[in-house]
Amino acid sequence: MQLMNHSFPLFPLPQYVPPKLVISRDYAILVLLKLVNIDYYGLTCYVYITLDLKLW
User: Fold this and answer.
1) What's the rounded Cα separation, in Å, for the pair 38 and 56?
2) Dist CA 20 CA 39 (whole Å)
3) Which UniProt keywords apply (predicted)?
């Protein structure tokens, strides 16, 4: 099963996370994993957040 690209039409969580929370990457990932509670979406969100932080 391939991971989805950067399109999350049903996944508005990255926009929902406040900028202050995104600054600390590990804490943001933990919060997102707790909010999602689904391993597959957690992994895709993890990749999305890390790539997004590198672009900042």
Assistant:
1) 26
2) 25
3) Membrane, Transmembrane, Transmembrane helix
Give the count of domains, the chain. Answer: 1
**Residue 45 confidence class, pLDDT cut points 50, 70, 90:** low
Phi-psi region of 18 (alpha: psi -120 to 50; beta: other; left: phi over 0): beta
Residue predicted with more confidence, 47 or 33: 33
Q: Which amino acid is at 51?
A: L
In SS3 terms, the chain reads as: CCCCCCCCCCCCHHHHCCHHHHHCHHHHHHHHHHHHCCHHHHHHHHHHHHHHHHHC
Answer yes or no: is pLDDT of 21 > 50: no
Q: Supply the range of the domain harboring residue 30.
A: 17-55
